[in-house]
Queue: 4 jobs
Job 1
Amino acid sequence: MFYAEYPLPDPCLPWAVCLWRFAVERDDPAQFSHIIPPDGMVSISMSCLPGGGQHGGLTGPSSHAHVVPAVHGMVAAGIRLQPGAAPALLPVAARDLVGQMQPLPSSATNDLLAHALATFAADPEQIDDVAASFMALTVGKPVPDPVVADAAQRIIADPANLRVDRLAGALRISPRQLRRRFLAASGISPKAFAQIYRLRQACIMALSHPVSAWAHIAADAGFADQAHFNRHVARTFGVTPRQLIAYLGSIDHRFASNLQPTRDV
């Protein structure tokens, strides 16, 4: 399996974080359940199945992993939206997407983007077509709350040390305003968003470290101890940390901030 994130052109960035692509390769199982780690954001995606079947979808922010069926030859691509972008672009209330996977509503601009994503899924060189189709979706739409976008980036950079009062002070708003605006834009609270990224950070670090180092990794990511980390993994993914890291380790990950492989390919 292969998962990669791709930077988008600057004009897309007020609304989107990155473009992503997931592929089930020829040496992978014929059929299995794929675990999608939560990222606290909304993705517009297109899944393409062998034989030509396609499905456009909206995946909302969630504190629990989504588990979806995957088959040999399947490929999917999507755009991960900035917090607050989905209500502006689609439009749909952020709270109505929390924990949900829904079909992408049909419209001229949505259908154009879905077609571009399907093309990109088959040929990852076609980033410009996706960007152009996505920008057509933004025409005449308000830019998402920049304070929420700034808050989200600050949390992602250091989720282990979130203090809502300190973050609000840095953004020059009250803690109550921060909670209200973040919840309205993303559907989840700043605290829940930070919990998601603490766990993502720990899992990414665990991929490249032995089990003996996981207690230190858990502490660095902001968990009280390894038992706290283990409980959080079980609650989020429904499996043990060993099972989760073994599965994630079977995927060649390349992230937008560093497009180098995390393991040999």
Note: The domain at 146-254 is CATH 1.10.10.60 (Arc Repressor Mutant, subunit A).
Job 2
Amino acid sequence: MMTDYDILGVPPNASLAEIRERYDELRVRLHPDRIAGQRRKNGQPDDPAANERPFRETTEAFERLIRERTGGNLPPWAEDLVAQARDVLDAARRLDISGMFGGMQRVAQGVENRVNETVATAVEITETLSAGYEQIKDIGRAGAGLWDLLTGKKKSK
């Protein structure tokens, strides 16, 4: 069975930035419209479900990895956006009567992809801020040690 890392083609120790970069590459390459165009070019019949399958699997793997990396603790606004994107996608599917509204489905999928990208960016910003905070604490400890060295005594709090 393929793991989410296998689906995206990244190693398990890949950073969030590497996962996002690979997802962006696959998202373009596996886009349902692009696959449909390749099928038409090769003289194959159009199959919307088959066109969407690799794109959806990749998007779902990306979302699972982001949730795994963040412990599933997405900010409330990100959870709301993901839910809204899914609602839009579900509505587009219900309205997709014999392919008439395929464009709506593609728009909904685009919204869902943007939400995933936004969540990944928020996670990266949170990690960067957390690392910066730790560095500031280290500088503070170093400053206290320097004070002790220069004065020969501990700085009172």
Note: The chain has a mean pLDDT of 75.
Job 3
Amino acid sequence: MNILFDEFADVPVGDGAMRMHLFRPVGAGRFPALMFFSEIYQVTRPIRRLATTLAGQGFLVGVPEVYHEFEPVGACLAYDAQGTERGNALKVTKSIAAFDSDAQAGLGYLASHPASTGMLGTVGKCLGGHLALRAAFDERVKATACFYPTDIHSSTLGEGRNDDTFSRLEELKAEALFVWGRQDPHIPFAGRQQIRERLEAVGVSYEWLEFNAAHAFMRDEGHRYDPVLTARALSAAVQLFHRSLR
């Protein structure tokens, strides 16, 4: 399946616009839509490749620039110490309300896109895994895949480092997939257990995969990349979306 990967839309948000990069199968047709939230580095080459892979499974994929208020349009942060410092600083500078309004606007855009069936899912990695989970509180979202989502157990996302995602898990009606690396220092065993116990307590419908892998093992640049585990994680996500977004 050939993929269109160079389209974008500037989605109105607040007093400005959020650039959303679009990926979809070539040709006529309507597809379930996925809002794909990136890592702290924005829409990098590894993120674009992963979005292309998801689109190749029969989805319209929209990837927003999560730091559009702070960075020039099209900007990516480098996978180095300076880029990491900047990305981590911005995730606690931007307000939770702004993250949430971006998600609402993006989902609305994807639901009404001519190539969309109107069925919506969310997916994300790292910061984006957390944002994908929050976006799935929206009742329009039927499934979410969260790859090593950070800051859920500690409730430290956003301005003031005091998000309410963990306390709101009982609101999650979408079917969920969580994928973790056991050697990930950002979400230690105790943090993962805290999340899982809460999911059980509030009756969320979810799948849970843990691999012997480091943080960012799905990023196909750098020494932590594990292609075999990435394929397994993506297969689980695609099965979830095909099942839930029909």
Note: The domain at 3-244 is CATH 3.40.50.1820 (Rossmann fold).
Job 4
Amino acid sequence: MPSAFPRAISSTSSSSEYVSYGFNYNGERWTVKFQGSNGETETLSETNNVSVSYNTPGLKVTIDPNGSAPIFTFADGYSPSDASAVSQWQIQYRPSQSANSEDQYKLDFEYRAELPFLKAVKFGGRMTDATTSGYGYGGFIVDAGANLGSVLDNTVIYANSVNSTALVSNGATADQTEAVYGNPYETNFWNTTETWSRGFSNQIFADAMTPLPSSFYYGGGGLPTDWLYPTFNGVAQYLDTSHFNLDNLYTTTGSDGKPYDQIPYNIQEKTDAQYVRFDYAFPAFGYEVDGNFGVRRVHTETTATGQNTRSETSRRQWHGSDRYCVQHTDLDDQGLYGLVAEL
């Protein structure tokens, strides 16, 4: 059941701000220089995807002998241009937010000693603080409940990655059934499924499908222009889009009716550095000797927090009269994690 030409539509808004400043001081013996800057950016993205799936019995795929592009040969009535082959319609919503900030400061001093051997002393330091943070699809288990062997008593908050699906049935009498949500104890609760009749699906196919442009190109060759792809608005108007929004990107309501914060990711890197340098110059054996020596120290600290997901599968198998068991546990555990590294 291949999916023919899914189409994605993305809406992105971005803002940024950058400020830099500084000062210089030049005295008889002292020079002081300071530079600073602060920058911030934020990007908010909403991506919609629409796809249509087909039943394609008898599909044959061969390789073009004159190139590497695949050639698709469909049975009569089961090509991407046949409404009768459609088995499923689906729209998807994927929101995200990301932000970056960086602060930089640099301070340098120079003292011109003009001594017989020591000409100048230079010292200073710098500091940076850079952060990357954001929110993804969200959704996690708040409380696994008293029975760890069952998900029925889980307390969860729901994911922002939402799918709305229509299954096409030849035997359905109603044009479409009411959308049914998932299980309230699972993070994908807002995913909905409904059933469309063949006649209703054919109507959507006629209104919402668009031929591929003649300029469409893939793998070294063009696809038939009678192949069709779906338009998002043409399909989405008939499916549940009640959670295709940003209402739950940052905070949401859990399965217990209480408010919860979604878990953001955050990566912060802090650095600081200091140095001291001595410039010298003196005559020796008829030559002028000059140079410098010094030391520099750099310290870096990186901290990361976010959401960790672990999935396992539980099976038991008993072997013969010895009755020993091989067990693999399935656990979906999502929560906060933190990592600190220093150099």
Note: The longest helix spans residues 198-208.
